[in-house]
Amino acid sequence: DTEVTQTPKHLVMGMTNKKSLKCEQHMGHRAMYWYKQKAKKPPELMFVYSYEKLSINESVPSRFSPECPNSSLLNLHLHALQPEDSALYLCASSQVVLVANNPKNIQYFGAGTRLSVL
Amino acid sequence: DQQVKQNSPSLSVQEGRISILNCDYTNSMFDYFLWYKKYPAEGPTFLISISSIKDKNEDGRFTVFLNKSAKHLSLHIVPSQPGDSAVYFCAASRYNTDKLIFGTGTRLQVFP
Question: Do A100 and B53 touch (CB under 8 A)?
Answer without folding.
Answer: yes
